[in-house]
Design goal:
The structure holds two protein chains of two kinds. In chain A, about 65% of the residues lie in helices and about 5% in strands. By secondary structure, chain A is mainly α. A three-stranded antiparallel sheet of chain A has the order 2-1-3. Chain A is elongated, with a radius of gyration of 33 Å. In chain A, about 30% of the residues are buried. Chain B is of the alpha/beta class. Chain B has a domain at about 1-100 and about 230-285: Rossmann fold (3-Layer(aba) Sandwich). Chain B contains twelve helices and ten strands. Chain B has helices at about 5, 15-20, 75-80, 110-115, 130-140, 150-160, 165-170, 180-195, 210-225, 240-245, 260-265, 270-280; strands at about 35-45, 50-60, 65, 90-100, 100-105, 120, 200-205, 230-235, 245-250, 255-260. In chain B, helix 9 links the parallel strand 7 (about 200-205) and strand 8. Chain B starts with a helix and ends in a 5-residue tail after the last helix. The relative contact order of chain B is 0.19. The chains are: A mainly alpha, B alpha/beta. Bound molecules: adenosine-5'-triphosphate and magnesium ion. Magnesium ion (MG) binds near residues 75 and 204 of chain B.
Chain lengths: ~450, ~280
């Protein structure tokens, strides 16, 4: 008996040894697979990160210089000979307001007719007393809108006439190119944007410190301009994008989330809901330009919304974003474990209470992410906006979603097609930075909301 | 060597030991009211039948234990009583189930009201991802059973105390219930179920994750609840069934094999299968 036990035992030990051996052999292969898989994953993550770094690095490196522009800091004498204007009209007793307005406008028009460029020329000439540069060359290094700056100063404060005041004027786009070196300085004269005299003058002013780089805050306060590219800004496009973003958030997020909740939690399973479901999935795959066409046909032709308005754009983007939000919200609802639903139902919660007290709270992060993705996608969309006329040139900052406007991605598109490439390429990238900034702040807001929400729980 | 030797001694649930335990329970008197009646109940999951024509009367003010091997349909049958099978896709219930003489499968019955009256403790602990306090307070709140903060706190404390969890969690009531250990979560779910004050309590293996001390607390709770409520208890522990129940039902492969007074089922089983199961030969 003992004999058998012993041999049985040793056989078992042998077996155990063998088993351990087999496991150990297999272990090597398993570890190898694991290592291969891990390194592949790491390589993928690193290359993705690398691409992002290269992309962002490129955008930032190309775009940052556009935030600084050449300025001319000098003193302007408002020569009464040149700015020869009468007193500003005041409201007379017994005069109607409309009449007064008319008089005032006429006065402003007369003020505009003054030869402001002569003042600018004189101001710049004091820095180059000996040279005989021609007027055109001098004015070619100053932004064409500089004269309006002087005019506005006088309208604001007529008492300034006759005085000499320090002033900062924008340099022209071509002067900016020359000083920054975005144009090849060794190009022959006929391929340069500025005349040889103007270039020499710009260099001299730069040397003297009269011409210097300043932060281009007008980029954020001015609208696009055709005559004066240097003073063109993206405030109009920014506001347009902001309005559209608000419209998308206000419309697409609630409608999308509500329909997802309805379809996932409440809708009966029948032909109709199946049809709706299939169509929503198909809509998500429709190219955005088709939505633009649809928007033009429906919102503008049928409902008569104004062309180029952020309202129409926002509605088109809402349509485009809805399927994304619905699909993502539904999948996060579907991921809620049935045990949670049963816990609520088992306690006697109604279906609606189960959804709103238990299911939705755990899906908020998913819904938030879905909404952000949808809104960010809408914010970067260009093609459908072109079809509803949002690439029109608009000279005013829109004050309501019904005003004509453009949008940041459209502005990128417009600027990158501008013929003064040297000047507009960095600006294109600067606009991209602003657009990305807007998206990042949207994301940051979402993260903030989410963390606040989680803390409250 | 045989596998048996490696696996250690078989689960010892022999009848002599059981006899000692059983001496504590008294069979219920004959005039006890019947609370739940089930007639010819069939349950299907899609095409497969999980419950095969079961009829059964469950008495009031008593504990009825469901025993049987894994997968025999205990949980499925239990879920018929509060219509939880409605929430499972593909599940279909046939037959008639009455509680207090009222058919609970008529279309005009309000399931929300039914489930407020019939509490359930699930097999897997499923606390809400909310604070311990809110877990327990949820039921009383939605049913409007508490009006002030003070009342809520009282109900929460009492329920947790009865479930034997109060001492462990009284300083962390506002931490998430999902952060508790498995056994604590199960007791939290028991507290949550009894906080509503249900008339019938369905408990699906409430002690499967509990140590002997916590188990004793829950069994005491069950014993105490029995005086006023109807309790149906699914358990894999023969000892527990013998200790706390007055009626025992033995299920096998979706069929009700034997149903009777606990003492009779454990000491003089009428069916061969029951005897084999109780003595550890099958299951
Ligand atoms: N949701 C479901 N879908 C399909 N089949 C199911 C479902 N739930 C249970 N079943 C099947 O029904 C039968 C009974 O299951 P049930 O959960 O009632 O068993 P049980 O007696 O509670 O087992 P255990 O003791 O392991 O909990 C099993 O064969 C199981 O596979
Ligand atoms: Mg079960």
């Amino acid at each position: 008996m003992a004999e058998i036990d012993k041999s049985g035992q040793s056989a078992m030990i042998d077996q155990a040894d063998e088993r351990r051996h087999i496991i150990r052999q297999g272990l090597g292969r398993r570890r190898r697979n694991e290592a291969i898989f891990r390194s592949l994953g790491l390589a993928a993550a690193l290359s993705a990160f690398g691409f992002v770094v290269v992309l962002f690095g490129n955008i930032v490196a190309s775009g940052l210089p556009a935030f600084w522009q050449v300025n001319i800091e000098t003193e302007v004498t408002f020569d009464p000979e040149v700015v020869n204007i009468e007193e500003r009209p005041v409201l007379q007793p017994g005069q109607s307001v409309a009449e007064y307005r008319r008089e005032d406008l006429a006065w402003q028009r007369r003020v505009s007719l003054a030869n402001w460029n002569a003042l600018i020329e004189a101001a710049i000439r004091q820095h180059a007393p000996d040279s005989d540069v021609d007027t055109r060359s001098i004015l070619s290094i100053v932004d064409p809108n500089a004269r309006f700056v002087l005019r506005d100063m006088v309208i604001e404060n007529p008492g300034i006439v006759g005085e000499t005041v320090p002033i900062r004027l924008l340099g022209s786009a071509n002067a900016d190119n020359w000083i920054k070196g975005t144009i090849d300085r060794s190009l022959p004269d006929h391929r340069q944007q500025l005349s040889p005299e103007a270039r020499a003058l710009a260099d001299a002013l730069h040397e003297e410190g009269v011409m210097r780089m300043r932060f281009a805050s007008h980029l954020f306060t001015n609208v696009d301009s055709r005559v004066a590219p240097a003073s063109a800004g993206l405030a109009g496009a920014f506001m347009g994008s902001l309005y559209m973003m608000l419209i998308v958030i206000v419309l697409a997020v609630p409608i999308g989330v509500a329909s997802a909740i309805y379809l996932e939690e409440f809708a009966p399973q029948n032909r109709l809901t199946d049809l709706i479901e299939v169509n929503i999935n198909n809509l998500a795959a429709v190219p955005s330009i088709v939505f633009g066409l649809l928007g033009a046909a429906v919102f503008i032709n049928v409902f008569g919304l104004p062309l180029s308005a952020p309202l129409a754009g926002g509605l088109v983007l809402t349509l485009m974003t809805l399927p994304t939000i619905i699909i993502a919200t539904r999948s996060s609802l579907r991921a809620v474990p049935p045990s949670l639903r049963q816990a609520a139902l088992g306690l006697g919660a109604s279906h609606t209470q189960m959804v709103f007290h238990h299911v939705l709270p755990v899906t908020y992060p998913g819904i938030l992410t879905a909404s952000i993705l949808g809104v960010a996608q809408a914010l970067g969309e260009t093609a459908p906006l072109l079809l509803i006329g949002m690439n029109a040139f608009v000279a005013n900052i829109p004050t309501s979603p019904l005003d004509q406007s453009t949008a940041l991605p459209v502005q990128i598109f417009l600027w990158q097609g501008n013929e003064n490439r040297n000047f507009f390429e960095p600006r294109t990238f600067a606009t991209i930075i602003v657009l990305l900034g807007l998206m990042l702040s949207l994301n940051a807001l979402a993260i903030y909301l989410r963390s606040r929400f989680e803390k409250r729980k | 060597m045989s596998r048996r030797a490696l696996a250690g001694p078989p689960q010892n649930t022999n009848r002599f030991a059981m006899h000692d335990v059983l001496s504590r329970t008294k069979p219920i008197s004959a005039d006890t009211r019947i609370r739940i009646t089930a007639r010819d109940v069939n349950v299907f999951y899609g095409a497969t039948q999980a419950i095969r024509t079961i009829s059964m009367d469950i008495p009031d003010c008593a504990v009825t234990a469901f025993i049987g091997p894994s997968g025999c349909g205990k949980s499925t049958f239990l879920r018929c009583f509060n219509r939880m099978n409605d929430t499972i896709e593909g599940a279909r219930v046939e037959g008639r189930i009455e509680i207090d003489g009222e058919d609970i499968y008529t279309p005009d019955l309000d399931v929300v009201e039914l489930r407020a009256r019939i509490g359930m403790v699930f097999q897997k602990p499923n606390p809400f991802p909310k604070s311990i306090f809110d877990n327990v307070a949820y039921g009383p709140r939605i049913h409007g059973l508490v009006r002030t903060r003070g009342e809520t706190e009282e109900v929460v404390e009492r329920s947790l105390q009865r479930a034997g969890l109060w001492k462990e969690v009284k300083d962390r009531l506002h931490e998430p219930g999902t952060g508790l250990s498995g056994g604590q979560q199960q007791r939290l779910c028991i507290a949550r179920a009894i906080a509503v004050g249900p008339e019938v309590i369905l408990m699906d293996e409430p002690c499967s994750a509990l140590d002997p001390i916590a188990t004793a607390v829950i069994e005491e709770l069950i014993d105490e609840l029995r005086t006023n409520y109807t309790i149906v208890l699914v358990t894999h522990s023969m000892q527990q069934a013998a200790r706390v129940s007055q009626k025992t039902a033995f299920f096998h492969l979706g069929k009700l094999i034997e149903y009777g007074d606990t003492e009779q089922v454990f000491t003089r089983p009428a069916e061969r299968q029951t005897e084999d199961y109780i003595s550890g030969k099958i299951g």
